[in-house]
Amino acid sequence: MLNIAAILAEELSSTEKFINDTVTLLDDGATVPFISRYRKEMTGGLDDIQLRTLESRLTYLRELEERKIAILKSIESQNKLDPSLKQQIENTESKTLLEDIYRPYMPKRRNKAQQAREAGLEPLTIQLLENQDKNPESLAAAFINKDHNIDTIELALEGAKQILMEVFSEDTGLNTELRDFLWQRVKLKSAVTPGKEQEGEKFSNYFDAVEAIAKIPSHRALALFRGRNEEFLQINLVIDEAEETNVAMNGSSLCANKIIKHFNINTQQQTGQWLAAVALWTWKVKLSTRLDTELKLQLKESAEQEAINVFSHNLNDLLMAAPAGPQVTIGLDPGFRSGVKIAVVDNTGKYIDDAVIYPHQPQNQYSQAIQTLADIIKKHNVKLVSIGNGTASRETDRLVNDLIKQHSDINIQKIVVSEAGASVYSASPIATEEFPNLDVTVRGAISIARRLQDPLAELVKIDPKAIGVGQYQHDVNQSKLGKGLHNVVEDCVNSVGVDINMASAQLLSYVSGFNTTLAKNVVEYRDNNGKFSNRNQLKKVARLGDKAFQQSAGFLKIMNGDTPLDSSSVHPEAYPIVKEIVKQSKHEITQLIGNQDVIQKLVAKDFANDQFGIPTIKDIFRELEKPGRDPRPDFKSATFKEGIEKIGDLKTGMILEGVVTNITNFGAFIDIGVHQDGLVHISAMADKFVKDPHQIVKTGDVVKVKVMEVETQRKRIALSMRLTEPSNNFSETKKPNPKNKTTSKMLKKSTVEPSNAFAAAFSRAKQNS
Questions:
Q1: N or C: which end of the chain has fewer CB within 10 A?
Q2: Edge-to-edge strands, sheet with 413-417
Q3: Nearest Cα to 570, choosing from 625, 522, 643?
Q4: What is residue 660's three-state secondary structure?
Q5: CATH superfamily of domain region 4-105
Q6: Among the four given CATH numbers 2.40.50.140, 2.60.120.10, 3.10.580.10, 3.40.640.10, the one describing domain 647-733
Q7: For 633, which DSSP code?
């Protein structure tokens, strides 16, 4: 079988020892955050991303090995397992290739090929392949067998044909060759379903489009599959007729030629011509349909994984956005007819007050609303105003601007925040348990306030899927998406660390070594016994054993507790090392923490031992220099330009400040204060080629952009981060290349038709599916 450690070591540029040690840690229940931070000596310094990759690949390779065992057992039970085949199976590193190898040995129903074998026609197939210069009828004449209803030469050749078709279609090497060849050559053609032109107008970009399957971006692939699933689009695989003509041989299709060459069929000889016809028939009847399905599935899985990666990246940026910090904050949930809901939370996020104002249509109680809001701000000494970006957001933002102008004694900072998921939270069991006596609208306003104070602590209460920073998130494998997003949240929570005396059960549930039950037990213990004063008290929590303590303790911080180190990320198991550091530095621990001059003079190797190596000692030094350091950036907000409140206020050439709200493979969406996000296309993000928008920006970034084009009717805003780019050149630079036939209709409609044998086979297969 495979040496999994060796494979992973090569893929991760590590060593087998580090990989084996890491796998042991994972198998023992250690979490990725714990391993990454506190077991660097065992992993060779693998980071979170590498460990997640290792974890995923380890699962794949172990599943592969389990499948091999089942396949070997199946083939052995058929008495067909020879040493060569066994070695081939054991050395395979791909699930797809493994199934190709197994295909000839899969238990089958009694088909025509099996019946032909039972009639003794298998030797005929061998003779046909080995004697291609002979007449096929003369070879078949010796195999007439009336006992098995092979009464004629035609029936003998038909039986041989059925056997050969099975042999051709199940050949491992041929399947691999065809799959790779088609992935590089085939194109995906989409067309509107007849009669669905108006109903499926949102997919009009794909009503007549063609693109190389290997080059289709994730978002376009998922759009195509959604259009097909909703029955607005028909999608087929095609090869340009001109391309096929260039390499076709004797009228056979490209793929039939691959079969012909693979089995050394000489089409200039009599039996060779008959075998070539069998090859073409094999392609049309057996291979085309299966490979059509496999290629589309490969495209879909690849597109789904890319979409999950984009969602995960955006979620990470959102969770790791700069917190405004512990300040008294008002959350405003804007609305027109229902009013603007107000919720006030103190500097710890605790709810203290709420109200409703009606400044907008139809009530228009503008002056009263300003006065009410001013009174609440003064009463609670509010420092921050968090405005949800939903309906009436811009109007509410203007209201707060007017309040600031009219009340010079009020010193507040206002920020418009994404309210994605706030309504989901407000109606959830979590919110009901937290605020059983509050209306859902007030709960939503509380969430808007808290997500400004600490985005991570508040957003973990919401299903990541409901936060809405992905592309085509409902079209991807929901299990994979859920696991991927859970990993992102877990990594973010543990990267920042958790104040155990303030954290909610939802936040605690993502701490390394914790689950929902343990998180609730911690909160219950805290409610019954007061704040934790040291990490050792964790061991008194129900069901929090030694293993959970080891995994979690370093990520749980206790501020102003009995032990100064408990407010840092130094793990309790390393406290003895810190004692040695304190002793050598000749300073008390309270004098040492934050004393960079002293710490920078220390040498890591002087404290290293068999348990804690130099990487861990250096981490301890860094933590002592800046204890409890937050990896998130400093807080800052965008300043929206006054007088720009709706899309109609925009003019091309304007330079504005905005906030990145979402990132896709094709660009970034920017909130510039007009209640409609604008798009910076990937080609307009920098003066150089940009492969991935995440290389330039991340969700929550404040950026300057230039308005390039405005479509008021369609509510579309084209922006550029190339501020010196002339806006009147924008449309010209976006015109499609008339020579490019591989892009979708959004760039250029294609006229390529599926008129060749390959396309016809796929079209027929599609119609029969």
A1: C
A2: 351-357, 340-345, 329-333, 384-388, 413-417
A3: 625
A4: strand
A5: RuvA domain 2-like (1.10.10.650)
A6: 2.40.50.140
A7: P
Q: Three-state DSSP class for 314?
A: helix
Closest of 167, 157, 186, 185 to residue 287, by C-alpha? 167
Q: Scanning the structure block, which residue is given the tokens 């019954």? A: 528
| pLDDT tens digits along 483-531 | 999 999 999 999 999 999 999 999 999 999 999 999 999 999 999 999 9
* Nearest one of 111, 145, 142 to 127, comparing CA atoms: 142
The tokens describing 490, both together, are 């877990």
- Residue labelled with tokens 């991340």: 698
Region of residue 645 (phi > 0: left; psi between -120 and 50: alpha; otherwise: beta): alpha
* Alpha helices (H) along 511-604: 516-529, 546-552, 575-585, 589-592, 596-599
Angle between helices 478-496 and 48-77 (to 10 degrees): 150
Contacts of 46 (CB under 8 A, 6+ apart): 12, 14, 18, 22, 35, 36, 54
Q: Are 177 and 258 in contact (CB under 8 A)?
A: yes
Q: How far is CA 431 from CA 196, 319, 426, 440, in A?
A: 43, 19, 5, 8
Chain-centroid distance of CA 542 in Å reads 36
pLDDT at site 728: 59
Alpha helices in 575-667 (DSSP H): 575-585, 589-592, 596-599, 614-625
Beta bridge partners of 556: 498
Mean pLDDT of the chain: 89
Rounded distance, CA 398 to CA 579, Å? 56
Q: Are 358 and 350 in contact (CB under 8 A)?
A: no
| 3-state SS, residue 662 | strand
722/536 Cα distance (integer angstroms): 55
Greatest distance between any 2 Cα atoms in the chain: 108
- How far apart are the C-alpha atoms of 378 and 355, rounded to whole Å? 14
**CA 660, CA 154: separation in Å to the nearest integer?**
71
> What is the mean pLDDT, run by run of 10 residues, along the chain of 769 residues?
96 98 98 97 96 97 98 97 97 96 93 94 96 95 91 96 97 96 93 95 94 93 96 90 41 79 95 96 94 96 94 90 94 95 96 97 96 97 93 89 93 88 91 94 96 95 85 88 95 96 96 97 97 97 97 96 94 96 91 91 92 94 89 80 81 90 87 86 93 87 91 89 76 39 36 32 34
- Picking from 278, 158, 304, the residue whose alpha carbon sits closest to that of residue 221 is 304
Asked if residues 441 and 338 have their Cβ atoms less than 8 Å apart, the reply is yes
- What is the second-level CATH architecture of the domain 324-453? 2-Layer Sandwich (3.30)
Name the β-bridge partners of 238: 187
Which tokens go with 461?
């209460």
pLDDT of residue 275: 97
3-state class (DSSP) for residue 671? strand
Which tokens go with 454? 């600490």
> Quick count: other Cβ atoms within 10 Å of Cβ 643?
7
Residue 79 exposed, middle or buried by CB count within 10 Å (0-12, 13-18, 19+): exposed
CB 757 within 8 A of CB 256: yes
DSSP state of 626: S
Q: Report H helices in 103-202.
A: 112-118, 122-130, 136-141, 153-170, 172-185
SS3 category, 115: helix
Torsion of CA 640, 646, 651, 654, to 10 degrees: 10
Domain borders along the chain are 4-105, 324-453, 647-733
What is residue 442's three-state secondary structure?
Answer: helix
Alpha-carbon distance 22 to 553, whole Å?
A: 20
| Single-letter amino acid code for the residue at 458 | E
d(Cα 263, Cα 133) in Å, to the nearest integer? 15
